[in-house]
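Incident review: delayed structure delivery

Summary: a single-chain prediction request sat in the queue longer than the usual turnaround. Root cause was a stuck worker, restarted by the on-call engineer. No data loss occurred. The affected request and its eventual output are reproduced below so the record is complete for anyone auditing the incident later.

Affected input:
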Amino acid sequence: MHVLITVVGARTEHWTDLFDVLCERPGLRLTVLAADVSPATEREFARLSQRHAGFSARILPHRMGEGRTGHMASIMIRLGGRAGPPVLPPPDVVHIIGEAAYLSTWQVLRTCRRHWPTVPTTLYAAQNVVTRFPMPFPLVERYAYRHVDMILPITPAARQVLRAKGFRGATTTVPLGVDTRTFRPRAAADHTRPFTAGFVGRFEPHKGVPDLLRAAELADCDVVLVGDGSLAPDIDRAARARPGRVRRYGWSGHTDLPDRLAQLDVLVLPAVEIVQRNVLPWVGIPLREQFGRVLVEAMACGIPVIGSDVGEIPYVVGDAGLIFPAGDVAALAERLGQLRDRPAMTRAMSTSGLSRATGEFAWHRIAERLDRLWRQLHEDRTGVPVRTPVGRQTRAEADREVPA
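Output delivered after worker restart:
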């Protein structure tokens, strides 16, 4: 089976882990069309092309990029002229990594209708807030709702947003995942060092980094922060105020991040909700954590996690970590103190987090679900039986997975 996947935007490196695992599925070939992606993503595509005979990727030129508007929804790609899209084997399924309101999603669906009208299409969805976008994005969104065969929300909340916005088609929840071959427990932590809390991600206001710095000082914890962003100077000031207790590192390579996580006793995601105005200054878009992928990466490494109650963090953490009210520095400090002073609790959270990550969020499990789903969609559309692993899921079963 030949699956064509389209993806846009700079923050797409984590998808290459899924592509890697998908290419290991028997009988599945993968073509990725990408635009406006990062150099790191391009390097990963080259690596996958060498590793898998059934993988190919093409970087498409784009008319408008994320850098001009600040949002991936505005990216417009060059899929080809009237003669058709780039020359490639006809796909059996097309999967779009991008929200329904993205201009690139509209372009891909229009191309499918023109050149591959019988090919089923699936669409990623992460939006967990009902947002009313300015024109022309509502028209693009409604077009996607009419023409996609199935939407794959990453959380139950994202599915509820689809229903609230009027999508009545088939859905099934397919979360983001973690590569458990790379993210796995390392050697036991050095218990002679101070209790250390960590953060990995963008140093931006909605991530709540200042709350973690204040809570760590209250709880007398060390802090390790990995990433970059506009709040980097604030972190450096905190490091000067607490010499040796606050350490900042730049972005780690994907294979290096597990070693950074191994320095931590707990991973904290203290996100807060803000209103974003980076598309049009008079249009406020609530920004609420849509998943928190670093949480599952830490859990897969056996690192306990603490998260705020914003967005989908409680869903991802489940019963495998601690939750605190967003913005409540005292409550976060209290959670840190609990883990510091109760080693048995820390060990239990490590075990339950590892079990949740490998059982619910491992990319190889998600790839198996996608493979079954795509094969069934192809069979439903064409009437041609497709060999698939035992326990395949029909579209009706998928839509019943999470009640509307």
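Verification: The two ends are 31 Å apart (CA to CA).
Action items: add queue-age alerting; document worker restart procedure.
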